[in-house]
Design the sequence.
């Protein structure tokens, strides 16, 4: 039957056609025009995984590894797969109860969902790791071990130099935006780890992975054609002699103080001991957090690197520099004599001197005659060449700056402090303009009063004298494997020769310093067979206004003709320098120059000195207080009062380890109410003080 | 010999080629959804554990059935049309007794190797029964009685379908309006129906106030364009006003009332999730928090993932087996209802356009075939097939790209599933058989 509705087929066709066009148009807009869905797909379907390269190693001057990487294991859990595993055994190995177990599993599920792996216990100790590994078949597949690279210190020494890593915090991330750090990364926080972070971290690689709807990784995207390789961190070659460092740390046991040894020719630091120090291995591994907090609260402040971060008056070691200034200013020459009648009477009130006699330069240094150097400085300050004391003291300060004092040297160990050299401005501020003269600060002439130096600066000043007029900025790192891409080492090749002092003047000072070792105060620091030039120092000091036992200082270089080592040793509150600081320096020099300590007597000396307990009484008291039952309460108190912040600031740690402190805070919150007002003496480094030295003992 | 000639004689090879092409594209797509790098293709293929290998078996079954259909005498279909229709209705009733629940709808009869969905297969019987009825001599679809019977035949399965919680499949039966229109159903029904459908969908998609503004704008536009005619005759103005009033009442009062008071909360939610929205009429606990009611339509997960997969394909696609969204199982039900997303991601705009055009060609070929039939029975049947196919393709592809509500119907020939593949195979091959005998006048 022929249909009379035949024309309707065209309507149907039109409808079909229209709909097909609509579908294609929509597909076109969705797939070709809009890019929104491509981005969304990338976000959820792919995963950009950062591949961490191995961190760079650090070698000592004999190419021994002193900082390397090792593997420690984390126990991982996939909560959805743990059914049927031997939970009891696991809890027993890890020493946790079932409540703790459930807590951890729940935390894992909340954090990462049940089908994705989470850390069950981080950084397993060797013992736990061994036990778990043995029984791993009982726990698989819900639990498995995952490697985590950590730092390792083969010699367990030089903690203050090498520094440690810690998790980056928000401040760090803000400061280093665009350098590829993400939260959870570790970065160098102190020491060389911090100063050479850029070089050590290497270059991170990126892997593109495919992800499924439950956020599981299913494989590489396009077989890895978009991936970039990780580049390992560069290795660093340091000038440290690790055995010398170990010896220094051993000798400085039970003492507060510092030892710095420099190779004068290169400026390379041979050893840098801050005492008390800490064993760097404490800050890697499972107990890291606990150790960290313990060290942070230790009244001995082991985190403080005293070689660059603590101030000491240089005492008599300063006299060598005073001599250089006097000679090069021409106010005295090597033969000028000064008569000492038991005190310096130039300023009315006498300043004691224990060496009556007539002294020329050499004898004055050898016998450390106070009167001589007071006269020399008086002449420098009152030199008619200069219009007034203002300009003459500034001129004097200019010399001192040229010797590397009163400013940061620029060493590659972080947290360096500049020290203090007084200028006209210093005294104008204290006494008012025109209200002071040489007599006001006469104790500066013998290295007391307003002069403040770091042990590194004293060692560097010895290098300057040894080199007869120049020093190279002291540094730990000599070279970087594969090139110094960031120019970090440029400044350590610069010779500082600001002043042109003739060699003859240095010879005179060397003569005096050699005399110290032969007939003067340094007799106890002789090194068999080596000509050492040295200078002892005894530094008066006070703590919180109370006069303390003197600090013992010793600075030297050796051998005289071809100096290979310049050294400064300070032992706090040790009394005479000759019994502690000088013999320590002597052993260090022997070890470095002869490569070992020879002879029974010398070996016995090492043991004797390392057993010598010079820990100041106030620190012992503080430690006892902290060890007592009140420990926790005190900690809470310290935290509350912001003491930890003060300590951290003093040590010069850039950022506070917030998490640890916050955790402790929480822990202690409950006990807060019971707290009484017990106050722990947190021993802060040398306080600022301005005591006129009324009498200075001869050293 | 004689047998062989009858099978191939007069059959439409274009239709068969299109059919095979789409089935093969479907198999490749299902394979790409399931195959993970590292799987052993042949092991899986012959282990028949994977969907793609099962689909191969279903296809094998379909080939056998297709051959059987081609061997059948065309008169068999006209003779048994009503009988089969009755059988289909009985099957649907039987489902209530022995049905199996899959995805919340009790519409499946388990037959061991395959689950049969009577609502799905009843499409064939309904098409045949409608063709049979409309091929009666001197039938006139302008008569209300004829209209009523034709509608009764077409829409009876809808009742069962809705009772079985298969709303999506129920809607397919509206595609029988297409053959009815071709056979002379006054277009006013279609216009009213389409308007209501559009209004309903728009009501679901837009907020009530936006919708009322839109309706008013349309009314004002209508008045503006008819202003000359309105000067002579005021009656159209009245009609426009009435329509406008009815639409506003529908959108502003009836729909909110329906969702707030008539439907249960879960029913309302379900309806809104079809269009990818949260239920804006959530009133159950207004006392708790009014601010939680979201004003902006929020896409539902399936549609969002589907659009991401297709959209990320770009112009030429990511390449076979390289789609990250497909490989990562991001699109739910990707091997069945959302199979088109696999084409869209792997082969991009080019691939998806080719598939859309293949369906287009199929539709036009069927119309072409329909119009060359001598018998009304064959023509009505062909139009029925075209209508069903059109509805499925438009709604399915539309829902994957956010143009149509998600009502859970398959993409013909491509989606995984024996029931769907079998149904469309039978529909097509009956058409091919009828077409092969187009010189006969069938009743």
Sequence:
């Amino acid at each position: 039957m022929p249909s009379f509705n035949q024309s309707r087929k065209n309507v149907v066709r039109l409808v079909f056609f229209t709909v097909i066009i609509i579908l294609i148009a929509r597909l076109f807009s969705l797939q070709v025009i809009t890019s929104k869905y491509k981005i969304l797909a990338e976000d959820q379907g792919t995963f950009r995984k950062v591949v961490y390269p191995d961190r760079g190693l650090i070698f000592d001057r004999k190419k021994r590894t002193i900082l390397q990487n090792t593997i420690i294991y984390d126990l991982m859990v996939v909560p959805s797969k743990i059914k049927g595993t031997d939970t009891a055994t696991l809890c027993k190995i890890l020493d946790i109860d079932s409540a703790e177990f459930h807590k951890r599993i729940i935390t894992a599920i909340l954090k990462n969902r049940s089908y994705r792996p989470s850390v069950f216990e981080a950084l397993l100790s060797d013992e736990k790791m061994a036990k778990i590994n043995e029984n791993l078949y009982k726990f698989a597949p819900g639990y498995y071990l995952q490697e985590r690279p950590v730092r390792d210190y083969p010699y367990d020494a030089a903690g203050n130099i090498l520094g440690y890593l810690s998790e980056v915090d928000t401040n760090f991330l803000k400061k280093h935006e665009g350098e590829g750090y993400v939260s959870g990364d570790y970065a160098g926080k102190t020491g060389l780890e911090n100063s050479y972070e850029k070089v050590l971290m290497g270059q991170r690689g990126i892997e593109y992975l495919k992800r499924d709807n439950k956020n599981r990784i299913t494989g590489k995207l396009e077989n890895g054609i978009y991936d970039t390789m990780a580049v390992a961190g560069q290795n660093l070659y340091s000038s440290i002699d690790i055995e010398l460092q170990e010896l220094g740390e051993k000798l400085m046991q039970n003492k507060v103080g510092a030892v710095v040894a420099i190779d004068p020719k290169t400026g390379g630091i041979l050893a840098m001991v801050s005492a008390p120090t800490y064993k760097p291995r404490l800050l890697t591994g499972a107990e890291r957090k606990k150790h960290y907090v313990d060290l942070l609260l230790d009244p001995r402040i082991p985190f403080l690197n005293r070689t660059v971060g603590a101030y000491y008056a240089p005492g008599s070691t300063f006299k060598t520099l005073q001599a250089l200034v006097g000679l090069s200013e021409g106010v005295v020459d090597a033969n000028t004599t000064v008569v000492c009648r038991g005190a310096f009477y130039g300023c009315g009130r006498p300043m004691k001197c224990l060496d009556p006699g007539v002294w020329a330069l050499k004898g004055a240094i050898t016998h450390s005659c106070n009167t001589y150097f007071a006269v020399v400085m008086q002449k420098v300050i009152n030199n008619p060449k200069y219009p007034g004391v203002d300009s003459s003291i500034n001129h004097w300060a200019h010399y001192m700056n040229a010797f590397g004092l009163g400013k940061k040297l620029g060493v590659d160990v972080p947290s360096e402090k500049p020290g203090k050299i007084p200028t006209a401005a210093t005294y104008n501020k204290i006494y008012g303009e025109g209200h002071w003269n040489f007599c006001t600060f006469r104790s500066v002439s013998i290295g007391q009063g307003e002069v403040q130096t770091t042990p590194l600066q004293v060692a560097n000043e010895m290098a300057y004298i040894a080199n007869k007029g120049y020093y190279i900025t002291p540094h730990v790192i000599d070279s970087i494997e594969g090139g110094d891409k960031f120019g970090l080492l440029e400044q350590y090749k610069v010779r500082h020769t600001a002043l042109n002092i003739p060699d003859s003047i240095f010879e005179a000072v060397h003569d005096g310093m050699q005399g110290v070792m032969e007939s003067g105060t340094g007799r106890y620091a002789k090194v068999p067979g080596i000509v050492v030039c040295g200078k002892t120092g005894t530094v008066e000091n006070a703590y919180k206004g109370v006069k303390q036992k003197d600090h013992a200082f010793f600075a030297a270089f050796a051998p005289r003709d071809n100096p290979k080592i310049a050294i400064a040793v300070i032992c706090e509150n040790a009394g005479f320098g000759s019994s502690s600081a000088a013999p320590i320096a002597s052993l260090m020099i022997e070890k470095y120059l002869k490569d070992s300590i020879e002879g029974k007597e010398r070996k016995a000396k090492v043991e004797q000195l390392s057993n010598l307990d010079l820990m100041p009484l106030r620190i012992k008291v503080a430690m006892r207080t902290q060890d007592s039952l009140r420990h926790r309460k005190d900690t809470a108190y310290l935290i509350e009062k912001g003491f930890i912040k003060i300590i951290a600031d003093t040590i010069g740690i850039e950022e506070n380890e917030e998490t640890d402190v916050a955790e402790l805070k929480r822990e202690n919150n409950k006990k807060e109410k019971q707290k009484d007002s017990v106050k722990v003496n947190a021993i802060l480094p040398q306080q600022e003080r301005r005591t006129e030295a009324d009498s200075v003992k001869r050293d | 010999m004689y047998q062989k000639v009858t099978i191939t004689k007069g059959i439409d090879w274009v239709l068969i080629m299109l059919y095979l092409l789409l089935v093969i594209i479907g198999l490749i797509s299902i394979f790409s959804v399931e195959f993970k790098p590292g799987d052993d293709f042949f092991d899986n293929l012959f282990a028949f554990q994977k969907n793609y290998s099962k689909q191969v078996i279903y296809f094998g079954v379909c080939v056998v059935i297709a051959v059987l259909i081609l061997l059948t005498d065309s008169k068999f279909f006209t003779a048994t049309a009503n009988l089969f229709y009755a059988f289909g209705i009985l099957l649907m009733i039987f489902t209530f007794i022995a049905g199996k629940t899959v995805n919340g709808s009790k519409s499946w009869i388990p037959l061991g190797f395959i689950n049969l969905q009577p609502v799905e297969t009843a499409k064939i019987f309904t098409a045949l029964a409608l063709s049979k009825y409309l091929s009666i001599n001197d039938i006139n679809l302008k008569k209300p009685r004829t209209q009523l019977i034709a509608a009764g035949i077409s829409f009876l399965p809808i009742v069962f379908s809705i009772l079985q919680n298969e709303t999506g499949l129920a809607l397919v039966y509206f595609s029988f309006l297409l053959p009815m229109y071709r056979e002379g159903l006054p277009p006013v029904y279609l216009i009213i129906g389409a308007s209501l459908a559009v209004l309903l969908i728009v009501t679901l998609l837009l907020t009530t106030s936006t919708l009322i503004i839109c309706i008013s704008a349309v009314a004002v536009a209508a008045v503006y364009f008819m202003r000359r005619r309105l000067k002579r005759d005021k009656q159209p103005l009245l009609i426009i006003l009435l329509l406008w009033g009815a639409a506003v009442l529908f959108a502003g009062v009836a729909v909110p009332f329906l969702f707030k008071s008539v439907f249960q909360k879960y029913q309302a939610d379900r309806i809104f999730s079809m269009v990818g929205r949260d239920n804006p009429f959530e009133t159950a606990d207004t006392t708790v928090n009014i601010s939680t009611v979201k004003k902006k339509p929020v896409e539902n997960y399936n549609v969002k993932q589907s659009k991401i997969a297709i959209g990320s394909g770009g112009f030429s696609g990511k390449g076979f087996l390289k789609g990250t969204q497909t490989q990562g199982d991001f699109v739910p039900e990707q091997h069945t209802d959302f199979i088109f997303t696999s084409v869209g991601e792997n082969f991009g705009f080019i691939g998806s356009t080719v598939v859309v055009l293949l369906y287009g060609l199929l539709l036009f070929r069927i119309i072409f075939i329909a119009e060359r039939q001598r018998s009304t029975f064959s023509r009505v049947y062909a139009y029925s097939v075209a209508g069903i196919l059109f509805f499925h393709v438009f709604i399915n592809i539309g829902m994957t790209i956010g143009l149509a509500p998600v009502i859970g119907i398959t993409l013909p020939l491509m989606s995984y599933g024996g029931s769907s593949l079998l149904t469309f195979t039978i529909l097509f091959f009956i058409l091919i058989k009828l077409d092969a005998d187009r010189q006969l006048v069938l009743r």
Summary: The radius of gyration of chain A is 33 Å. Residues 654-660, 670-699 of chain A have pLDDT under 50 and may be disordered. Chain A touches chain B at residues 1, 3-6, 8-9, 11-13, 16-17, 19-20, 22-24, 26-28, 30-32, 34, 36-38, 40-42, 44-46, 210-213, 218-219, 221-222 (CB under 8 Å). Chain A has two domains: 49-238, 306-611.
